[in-house]
Amino acid sequence: MQSTLLPPAITELVSALSSLPGIGAKTARRLAFHMVDGASDKALALHQALSKVQSEMGHCSVCGFFSRPDEPCALCSNPHRT
């Protein structure tokens, strides 16, 4: 389907999804259509999860792995680990 036939909001969603690694244009369109076509609860859950990750996650102050911002991750803060 040509993107010129799609509403601008869907085109923007497809573009954002296809910019992710491993998601091509066809998969991005499928995901976008699924989110728009009666899956508002799933779209809302995805929105909330993305917002939470963006606001609550950072990188470990020791090794750089995912953790709370400016805190050591579970591995680096484990006292039993040497």
Could you walk me through the main structural features you see in this protein, from its secondary elements to its overall organization?
The chain is mainly α. It has a domain at 3-56: RecR Domain 1 (Helicase, Ruva Protein, domain 3). The protein has helices spanning 8-18, 25-36, 40-56; strands spanning 58-59, 66-67. A two-stranded antiparallel sheet has the order 1-2. Helix 1 packs across helix 2.
Strand neighbour order, sheet with most strands: 1-2
Instruction: Specify the CATH class of the domain at 3-56.
Output: Mainly Alpha
Order of helices and strands: HHHEE
Into which percent range does the helicity of residues fall?
Answer: 40-55%
Strand percentage lies at under 5%
Q: Classify the fold: give the CATH topology of the domain at 3-56.
A: Helicase, Ruva Protein, domain 3
- Class derived from helix and strand content: mainly alpha
The overall pLDDT average reads: 90
Count the beta strands.
2
Radius of gyration, whole Å: 18 Å
